[in-house]
Amino acid sequence: MNDEALLLARLNAETARIEWPELERHFARGTLLKVASSLDLIEVAASMVRDDGKSVRGWMTDGALAKATEHDARGWVARQPSFWAVVVAPWVLVQEIRNGNG
Question: Where along the chain do its domains lie?
């Protein structure tokens, strides 16, 4: 296995399904990043680990990767969705699980 495949396998193994109450403390610390459903969570995490600033900046500019806001948190409190999450220290990347997406 090459380094890229090992990185993707490691990140995939570290990804977990999690509920909003377990993410609230990360939101309060300002370390919660939301990943749009149009992106692959593992690929975004891998890009961050590789320090691929061009990809990360592009996603942030497009709004596909963004720091969770108060508005997001209020919606998640009201709806109590589940998420896929992976840690790329110091960040916790989350992607909301929509119907048929997990």
Answer: 3-96
